[in-house]
Amino acid sequence: MAARCSVCNLDLSAHDSGDGPAVFVILILGILVVPLALGLEVSMTPPIWVHLVVWPPVILALAMLLLRLMKAILVAIHFKKLRHEYNE
Q1: In the beta sheet, which residues pair with residue 54?
Q2: Cα 50 to Cα 45: distance, rounded to the nearest angstrom
Q3: For residues 57 and 62, what is the distance between their CA atoms, to the nearest angstrom?
Q4: Would you give per-residue pLDDT tens digits along the chain (88 residues)?
Q5: Distance, CA of 10 to CA of 87 (rounded, Å)
Q6: CA within 13 Å, CB half, 81
Q7: 11 pairs with which residues across the strands?
């Protein structure tokens, strides 16, 4: 997290998202990937190496995309709800 906004120079150092984005991304990925993996297994019964080749890149790509989005959302919510406590 940048200490200050590059556009408006707003102090963002007090707005920390902590581990929240990672928790939400883990839950979202579990909801998305587990049914897809089970559906692939039931419908095609591929060998285990297919799962080992397909799912790690899918999970990694989705995690990288979702982490930044979830961090931005949680920092925005934190700023909106608690900005009165951080006014300079």
Answers
A1: none
A2: 10
A3: 8
A4: 788 888 888 777 777 788 999 999 999 999 999 999 999 999 999 999 999 999 999 999 999 999 999 998 998 888 888 766 666 5
A5: 10
A6: 8
A7: 4
